[in-house]
Every structure is written in structure tokens, then in C-alpha cells.
Amino acid sequence: MGSKNKLKRFKQNETFANVVQPTREEVFNNSLDLRGNWGKQFFKNEHPLVLELGCGKGEYTVNLAKAHPNKNFLGVDIKGARFWRGAKTALEENLENVGFLRTQIELIDHLFEENEVDEIWITFPDPQIKYKRTKHRLTNPDFLTKYKKVLKPGGYVHLKTDSEFMHGYTLGLLSGLDEEIVYAHHDVYGNEHSPEEVTSIQTYYEGQYLEEGKKITYIKFRFRSI
């Protein structure tokens, strides 16, 4: 994507009512008015709040919102030029239960109160295979601690990825921490018992992975220690 297109999308995001782009000051001072009030102030209802972390173009966020009109969905990503597509689609289709938050995922515990989030989806994250990059891996212990903090007791986390490495790493970590693995499979499209919301929604890149013969893995888990 050219720099002109990026700038154009950044400008449009500023006008979109369904996009929130907090300043670093708001984040680190915990002064964002929406913190603890996403339902009342942003979505104007008390429906369950679901996050998609690293939402990319927002395809999963938008399609989950269509499938579950009685839940609120918030796509989180630092790359606003990417989720512009999802935000624009949601506005065009009058989806009032969709929003997008431009921020770094490691800051979510500054942007949501404890127990404010009902569910988290992590879809096709960079597995960060190199050892020096493990601090950016979205299911590392530090991130799990943040998810545990913002999730309500019993809230589910979903990990959908084409990376066997990420799948195995996360399963091993969860087992070691004695967290509850509700469902796990290394090939969701090769298993007739896979949950429908995992197989009925496909992102553009997911379609490409499948064409290349890659298997799509999935884990659903929750924290026992909440």
C-alpha cells in the first residue's frame, strides 16, 4: 500500500464514529473515558464485549458481529490503515455492534478495566518464532497475564492460526500453567466436530493458506485462576 493511500485511510479513520485512537497520554494516565465504560459510552448497551487482538483488516471482527448481534465486537490493532477496511464496511452495513481500537496490544490492561471483557479472539498472529521476538508472541506468559486481568471470570480466549509452532507453543504453555483447554485441534477443517464460528468465517489470507494446503489450527481456553 502506498504512503498516499495510508495517509488517506488515517484521515478517514479520524472521521469514523466506530474508531477510537487514544493518545499515549490517555493510555498511560489511565484517563481514557471509555475504560470501564465501553458498553455504556461506546456501544450504548450492556451486551458482552468481545475483543479481536491483532485484527488486521477486521474481517473476523465484522463477521463475528454479523453472526452475534447481541454481542459487541472491538477489533484491536496498531495498524489503522489495515482495519480501515473493516471499519468502513461496518459503517456501510450499519453494524452498530462493531468498533476498532488503534493501540498496541500490550497496553490493553490500560484500556479496559479488570473483568470488563467477556471473550478474546486472536486470529493468525505472527508466531514470532525467533527467540529474541518471544516478548511479542501474543500467547506468551506476559500477554496471558494481561488477558486474565481484563477478562471476566470464565471468559474464553480463542487462538486460530496457521502456525503449528504457535499452536504447539500455546498448548504446552497452557498445560504447564494448568489452565483449562476447552477445545484444541491441529486441523479444524479436517475435523467435523470443529465449532461453526471457527470454520464458517475465513479471512482473505486464511483462504490463501488453505489453497496452499496449510492446516488451520484452533485452541479455545480459559483461565482457572481467575
Provide a descriptive summary of the structure in words.
The protein contains ten helices and eight strands. Helices cover 38% and strands 21% of the residues. Helix 1 (3-15) crosses helix 5 (80-92). It has an eight-stranded mixed β-sheet with strand order 1-4-3-2-5-6-8-7, with helices on both faces. Strand 3, helix 5 (80-92) and strand 4 form a beta-alpha-beta unit. The model has no long low-confidence stretch (mean pLDDT 93). It has helices spanning 3-15, 24-28, 38-43, 59-67, 80-92, 108-111, 141-150, 164-176, 196-199, 204-211; strands spanning 19-20, 49-53, 72-77, 98-102, 117-123, 151-161, 180-185, 217-222. It has a single domain (3-21, 28-222), classed as Vaccinia Virus protein VP39 (Rossmann fold, 3-Layer(aba) Sandwich). The longest helix has 13 residues, at 3-15. The chain is globular, with a radius of gyration of 17 Å. It is of the alpha/beta class.
